[in-house]
Amino acid sequence: MDYKVMKKVLEANEFLAGDIRRLLAEKKTVMFNLISSPGSGKTTILEKTIPLLSSKYKIGIIEGDVETERDAQRLQRFDLPMVLINTHGACHLDSETVLSALQEMPLDDLDIIFVENVGNLVCPAEFDIGENGKIAVLSTPEGDDKPQKYPLLFRECKLVLLNKIDLLSVVNFSLSDFCEDLSTLNGSIPILEMAATSGMGVDEWLQWIEQAVQEEREAWLQETNC
Amino acid sequence: MDYKVMKKVLEANEFLAGDIRRLLAEKKTVMFNLISSPGSGKTTILEKTIPLLSSKYKIGIIEGDVETERDAQRLQRFDLPMVLINTHGACHLDSETVLSALQEMPLDDLDIIFVENVGNLVCPAEFDIGENGKIAVLSTPEGDDKPQKYPLLFRECKLVLLNKIDLLSVVNFSLSDFCEDLSTLNGSIPILEMAATSGMGVDEWLQWIEQAVQEEREAWLQETNC
Asked: How far is B108 from chain A (nearest CA, A)?
């Protein structure tokens, strides 16, 4: 795409992302943006997370999908406020569609919103959707070279969930290379090892969420005091 | 992105894709476009394919990558004509960049060009690059639901390489669901099971390539005779 066109698209997106950030701050709702390749385990991670987190927080879901409702159907059983965004071919969620989705949600009554972005390591990282944190999910079969190959996401995210860690012995993945590349790109970025299907690492992930929510709330409080 | 802008971008792309098709027909070079998520095994498949195919065909490579030269470096040892396209953030190859790459290659002396597209199941499928066939690569850890979730690629491709079939017993993947979804989307699409790291399925893949090259050559011959 023409560079100038892309710049305009990103500027318009950034403007609305600011609106989303203000809306979330006003409503005291923390929004996490889960980004990964297709099949890394985002939906499974949410399936494991929601029941354990629901006793403490009120949760909403924005489910991004190119065509189907499959992931949304998997999460429907939790009976949470959920908006499905079908992008019909587009490779990422943008601020305009996310803002529309948020306007359909009971924000006064939500503590946390998880956005499951379209499965793609490239474009979703370029589009700020006003989230309080991008979370990169990578699974071990995808290979340890992905941070170097898709640096924008791994540079911008607040946390890396390394999923399918139970497959480490049968795939070609060097944990030390992976961690070294990540630390070059993104200093002290936390990396949580996880096997979502068995529940391994889920406790640490819940602790990370609690901490992140706490930090956002304190930041909002400080802004109000200024 | 605005619908009209996207339509213009795709129309301009389609125009140049026609130029590429004419160029390849004139030079009698068959071009395959490998599309998959990051980490499904495209580069490993090429590493296994090139030495076995080189005795019969002269091969060239167009290597698409968002930022690094990692994949190109892995293929450099084969000493083939290769052009690396770094997209610097863009999520797919388009006709303009591929046409530029082709103009740097010794087309009179090449039988087959493999394009390794940017790792992404969405956008590369939307951009016709004048190839003689798209080849979808999916690995079993990515899950059996991907054809339904990313239908454009699986509808348009001429072949599906189902890689990492050796992991079938340790991942959540139903072969019968996968094949059923594919056949709904794309009739009699051939599916080759493969474990590129061990070489399993590579012979069948080579046979498919030979057959596809033969068919293109016969089609070009018929066009010349008309």
From this structure: 30
Is the CB of B66 less than 8 angstroms away from the CB of A142? no
Task: Give the tokens for residue B142.
Answer: 């990515």
The number of C-alpha atoms within 13 Å of A180 and in the hemisphere containing its C-beta is 7
User: How many alpha carbons fall within 13 Å on the CB side of residue B35?
Assistant: 34
Q: Order of strands, edge to edge, in the sheet holding A191-193?
A: A82-86, A59-65, A112-116, A30-36, A133-139, A159-163, A191-193
- Comparing alpha-carbon positions, the chain A residue that sits nearest to B69 is A149
The two structure tokens encoding residue B73: 């470096």
- Specify the pLDDT at position B89: 82
| B59-99 per-position pLDDT tens digit | 999 999 988 899 999 999 999 999 999 988 888 999 999 99
Q: Which residues contact B163 (CB under 8 A, 6 or more apart)?
A: B40, B41, B45, B137, B138, B139, B140, B194, B195, B196
pTM: 0.89
A–B: how many Cβ contacts below 8 A?
119
Q: Is B11 exposed, middle or buried (0-12, 13-18, 19+ CB in 10 A)?
A: exposed
The helix (H) or strand (E) run that includes residue A136 is strand A133-139
- What residues form DSSP beta bridges with B160? B136, B191
Q: Which of chain B's residues have a Cβ under 8 Å away from the Cβ of A1? A: 1, 9, 90
Report whether pLDDT(B9) > 90: no
Q: What are phi and psi of B194, to 5 degrees?
A: -145, 150
With contacts defined as CB-CB under 8 Å, which chain A residues touch B5?
Answer: 5, 9
ipTM reported for the complex surpasses 0.85: no
A114 by DSSP, 3-state: which? strand
Instruction: Compute the distance between CA of residue A153 and CA of residue A174 in angstroms, rounded to an integer.
Output: 20
Decide if pLDDT at B56 tops 60. Answer: yes
Give the span between the Cα atoms of A154 and A6, in whole angstroms: 21
A141 contacts in chain B (CB < 8 Å): 39, 139, 141-142, 164, 167, 171
Q: Which domains are assigned to chain B?
A: 2-225 (3.40.50.300)
